[in-house]
Amino acid sequence: MMKSSAAGSPFIIDTQLSGYGSHSRYVRLKCGIRVYMDVPAGICPNCGHTHTELPDFIRPYKHYESSVIQEVVNGKSTDICEADESTMKRWKREHQRMAPHVETLLRTVLSASVTSY
């Protein structure tokens, strides 16, 4: 059994997944190297879907290291990133589109944690 942050979805699922196996996934690191790794996958007993347990430095559906994407979104140097200009523009658009939603979620969590004390 493994505990999942369910990288196959944008939300964290706090449940035990039954072991299913693993699959190969590649990620481009900050230094530009393309690394292949086996990532574990498991079946959720609640929904019956297979979820992948990604390491913290990989975002779901992305092939670049999280820190690279974050630096591009924050407007820092894009010289370290080998992604196409269109890819970096898409990351920025996605961030701008999701920012209000994420802010609302964070405010909700914060207010819930403050009222529970």
How does this structure look, described?
By secondary structure, the chain is of the alpha+beta class. The protein has one domain (2-115). 33% of the residues lie in helices and 24% in strands. The chain has 2 helices and 4 strands. The chain has a 4-stranded antiparallel beta sheet with strand order 1-2-3-4, with no helix packed on it. The radius of gyration is 17 Å and the shape is flat. It comes from Selenomonas ruminis.
Short structural summary:
The chain is α+β, with helices and mostly antiparallel strands and 117 residues long. 33% of the residues lie in helices and 24% in strands. A hairpin with a 6-residue loop joins strand 3 (34-43) and strand 4 (50-52).
How does the SSE layout of this entry go?
Elements: E1 2-3, E2 16-28, E3 34-43, E4 50-52, H1 66-73, H2 85-115
Antiparallel strand pairs: 1-2, 2-3, 3-4
